[in-house]
Predict the 3D structure of the following.
Amino acid sequence: MWTADRWKEYEVLDTSRGEKLERWGDYLLVRPDPQVIWDTERVHKGWKKPNGHYHRSSKGGGEWEFFHLPEQWEIHYDDLTFHLKPFSFKHTGLFPEQAVNWDWFRQKIKEAGRPVKVLNLFAYTGGATLAAASAGAAVTHVDASKGMVTWAKENAAASGLSEAPIRWLVDDCVKFVEREIRRGNHYDAIIMDPPSYGRGPKGEIWKIEDMIHPLIRLCAKLLSEEPVFFLLNSYTTGLQPAVLTYLLSTELKSFGGHVESGEIGLPVRETGLILPCGASGRWSIQ
């Protein structure tokens, strides 16, 4: 398992009864996690005094309960700064387990020894965009939500990357890729972090099981003659690491290179276990 274990301002403190206790900077949050199916004793004192608790509803969705939590605060990862705020369906605006992938492709960008153009699809609040830009890449950031793109710009400014070569685009990812193919544009690297289900800015429906393979096939047409890497993330239970390997190997075989896939996870301080947080497939030329 690839583990995001270099955080200093974030950690999973404990897990039990369908929930995880996390420290986000100076604040403790309790959030539901479908992987936590064990019922163990809640020893950590933070369970009793969190700053925020997301309660899942039996009817679907849920709501936050707050205890002395600011509307917004920030945490850091290396030279990156992220603004956090609890919002719909338990999220805070950051997936900290992705840091293990940021470290991987940052190294790939630096090792390339040349300018690298990166396309980040389903780019959310910009964690991967900022990581790539801080390593020296020129990034095209695409997300269907105007609010998420605005949030990502705020994170870039907080990280000192306002002047970095980042294109910010509010667009449906599939339609954007199709247009880029027609335009004849190419990228040296592609990052793709699609949701299991979603809608584009004009109501376009996205269902990952039906659409991920055709999109990877399209994205392969956008790769330059000397591509550096392709990263595919999945939080969908049915897309296991072996499936990600097959998808990438099938569509990128003409480029050569190497594919590896695995679970990504976060260490749990109280137990020493690793909490699974989805899977990633990584293709690289070396």
About this structure: The CA atoms of residues 61 and 89 lie 6 Å apart. Residues 99-112 form the longest helix (14 residues). Residues 97-284 form a domain with the Rossmann fold fold (CATH 3.40.50.150). The mean pLDDT is 95.
